[in-house]
From TrEMBL:
SUPFAM superfamilies: UBA-like, UBC-like. It comes from the Eukaryota. GO terms for molecular function: ATP binding; ubiquitin conjugating enzyme activity. Belongs to the ubiquitin-conjugating enzyme family. This is E2 ubiquitin-conjugating enzyme. Keywords: ATP-binding, Nucleotide-binding, Transferase, Ubl conjugation pathway. Residues 1-147 form the UBC core domain. The active site is at C85. It comes from Starmerella bacillaris (Yeast). InterPro entries: Ub_conjugating_enzyme, UBA-like_sf, UBA_C_fun, UBC, UBQ-conjugating_AS, UBQ-conjugating_enzyme/RWD. Its EC number is 2.3.2.23. Gene3D superfamilies: DNA helicase RuvA subunit, C-terminal domain (1.10.8.10), Ubiquitin Conjugating Enzyme (3.10.110.10).
Amino acid sequence: MSKRLLKDLQAIKNDTEWHFTATPEESDLTKIQASFPGPAKSPYQGGSFVVEFDVPPEYPLKPPRAKFVTRVFHPNISSQTGAICLDILKDKWTPVYSLLSILISLQQLLDSPNAADPQDAEVAKVYNERPEEFERTAKEWTARYAKPAKAATIDDASVSPFLDMGFPKEKIIAVFEELGLTKINSDSEKEAVLNKLL
């Protein structure tokens, strides 16, 4: 299981097309926090969406449990718990799928809601009956809850060593911002970031 999981995590790290991240907990590889950008030309554009994976020991024979950490206004995602209604996470799962293919599917789900099989009946009702209100609310929630990490202004090479240590990117970026850093220029700055992360 862990060999396959490491391969999945490496595939996400090496992928340049999708701009996904996946960071396991340092003490437990099966608890993973992943993120992906909202699809272009959708109400979720400009947002960064965080999903938690809990990978069972039987993986890849069984799918990981997944839920949104970021609040999302979407018929197939619970606005309360983040639970996801997606067939490949249930009865359509096969070991051919990977964490990368789940993230791609989740991004596509944001782009193409399936209101016929809702996770959140209230949101599905708005989606079906009041499409303009749905679009407006989804955009508002994206602006409020799915703020992307300000990675653009922060030097990637400075973030990299902390990612290698297993810290989530969002947390590293938050510490850089808190300390007013965009780049590590000295050992004392590196130490300051590390102390905050710990």
